[in-house]
């Protein structure tokens, strides 16, 4: 496979750089992550739909610190969804 890489002008990788681990790469490597994701989806239920329509923007946070509260307070026109474990 290394010989194949050396002889190729471009290499397409099925990886998503936003969700993948950091790695060394080359300008010849093109990430095309998500090509296997199905396009179909179902509508949101009433609870989530109304929550997401409260403001023009929504941010989902899946971790927690006191800094997040202070930061969220600076954006009154944004709905923050903060996931936490009890």
From TrEMBL:
<comment type="similarity">
    <text>Belongs to the UDP-glycosyltransferase family.</text>
</comment>
<keyword id="KW-0328">Glycosyltransferase</keyword>
<dbReference type="InterPro" id="IPR050271">
    <property type="entry name" value="UDP-glycosyltransferase"/>
</dbReference>
<dbReference type="GO" id="GO:0015020">
    <property type="term" value="F:glucuronosyltransferase activity"/>
</dbReference>
<protein>
    <recommendedName>
        <fullName>glucuronosyltransferase</fullName>
        <ecNumber>2.4.1.17</ecNumber>
    </recommendedName>
</protein>
<keyword id="KW-0808">Transferase</keyword>
């Amino acid at each position: 496979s290394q010989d194949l890489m050396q002889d190729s002008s471009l290499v397409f990788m099925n990886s998503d750089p936003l969700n993948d681990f950091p790695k060394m790469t080359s300008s010849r490597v093109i990430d095309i992550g998500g090509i296997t994701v199905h396009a179909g989806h179902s509508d949101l239920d009433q609870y989530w739909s109304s929550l997401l329509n409260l403001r023009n923007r929504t941010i989902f946070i899946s971790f927690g610190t006191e800094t997040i509260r202070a930061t969220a307070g600076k954006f009154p026109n944004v709905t923050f969804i903060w996931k936490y474990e009890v």
